[in-house]
Input
Amino acid sequence: MDTRERFLQTLRFGMPDRIPYYELGLWHSTVERWYGEGLPEEVPQDRVFDFLGFDRLWEDVGVNFGMLPPFKERVIREGGGRKVILDSDGIEKEILTQGSETSMPHFIRFPVKTREDFEAIKQRYDPDTKWRCPRWWSDRVRCWKERDYPLKIGGFGFFWTLRKWMGFERTLTLFYDDPALIHEMLDFLADFYVRSMEKALQETDIDWAYISEDMAFKTASMISPAMFREFLMPAYRKVTDTLHKYGVEIIFVDSDGNVNELIPLWLEAGVNGILPLEVQAGMDPVALRRRYGRDLLIMGGIDKKALARGRSAIEEEVVSKIPYLIEKGGYIPMVDHTVPPDVPFENYLYYRELIRKIAEG
Output
């Protein structure tokens, strides 16, 4: 069974030969640590999973759902171990000159402050811009017809994009201060996403879709379920209806935090998968499988902190979840985010070996 068949059989509750071996990713500093703990230095950062015997990861069709043209990145000022930059999304922010991977930026200014700013930034979201689909598109389409790995479409989100336009606080207050503008923004994004993805959907057989959101805190959603239903549900339905029209039945949302109150709404909106299930935020893949049965697909849900604590914690985490979830189907085990640098290489190898033994008997 090839990787594509294995992926689809798993997420269709079929009969795969085994579960796919995947991970969301590794911090750069994690791999640097591992080079000193037994990972051969000749293994490049982007080939670690190949070295560990993982399945070939899915490929994205490469539709650009962002701004075209992007803002020109530049350094505004620098000093004292920090620099203020304007990034490609038009966000002015302060970052560390070293170690920025392990710290959050300090956001200073966002590109959309007024309706006039929104009208201006819309010009960067023309679905017919030449480079929405990547170069050599026809060659890629021909190659994909012979592929043995999953093909996805992703890189877009609704709440995600509002935050990038206006910042977190301004986004939340605008739901109250100017709900009509929020509706207008979400309608615009939904139409833009649908038009931008249609060429890829028409010319390829995409296996799954990936929506980026990150719209929950440690204990609850960043907006109420009522607000999601009023504002986001119609936008989601436009996109998921289009994906379903072209046969894409596996649609995941990526959101950190505690998304328990959002899952029923996502299911109603046409989404049927959730990742990465952040354990520290109270997400429990076993409880979700028992509650939602085959209505919900799951990736993730393995506590990254357990991997840092040692073999006993790893064994407890893996054995308490993965055998049950594999038996029920519709599940791909992964750490509940990218693997951080406090995880020793030896611990990670032990974690993956436990999964392999369970999956292969």
Observations:
- The CA atoms of residues 168 and 345 lie 36 Å apart.
- The chain has 14 helices and eleven strands.
- The chain has a mean pLDDT of 97.
